[in-house]
Fold this protein.
Amino acid sequence: MPIAADAVRSDLLCGVGPDGRWRGWFDVRVDADALRTIGLHPEQASAVVNGSSPPGWWHAEAERRARR
C-alpha cells in the first residue's frame, strides 16, 4: 500500500436512522502529509461538478452493458 497503515484511520458508526431502520456509516481519514506520497496534497482544490449530468438513458445503457 502506498500509504502507511498508521496514516489511515477508519471508524464505523451504527445506529437507528430517522426511519427507524438500522444504518451503518463509515468514516475514513488519511493524514494530509501521507497523501503527498501518491501525488496529492492538502492545498489542492476539491473536486467539483463542472457540467450537467448525463441523460437518464446513458446511465441505463451503462447498467445493461455491465450485465453482459
Observations:
- The chain has a mean pLDDT of 84.
